[in-house]
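Most newcomers find our protein records easier to grasp once they have seen one. Read left to right, the backbone structure tokens trace the chain's path through space. Once this layout is familiar, the rest of the handout is easier to follow. The record below serves as our worked example for the rest of this section:


***
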Amino acid sequence: MNTLKEVLSLLDEILSLNGRAAEFSPETPLLGAIPELDSMAVVALITGFEERFGFAVEDDDIEGSTFATVGSLVEFVDGKLAF
């Protein structure tokens, strides 16, 4: 599975970016840089990760830095999948 591709797909879907996420790289800033990524979108992304990847996200797992960049999101998902 290509985690980056899956994360970008989910970002595009949940944030209604209409394909813009395909241009994102791991260095692309998210939180504070993309207006669509508000607190409700963060919750929707977490739910989307749980559904798409089949893992549970605990409250203690989430920090603002998790949503700093595309790469930090991919690292988070990869870390959860490793368990």
Notes: The chain has one domain: 3-81. Residues 3-81 form a domain with the Non-ribosomal Peptide Synthetase Peptidyl Carrier Protein; Chain A fold (CATH 1.10.1200.10).
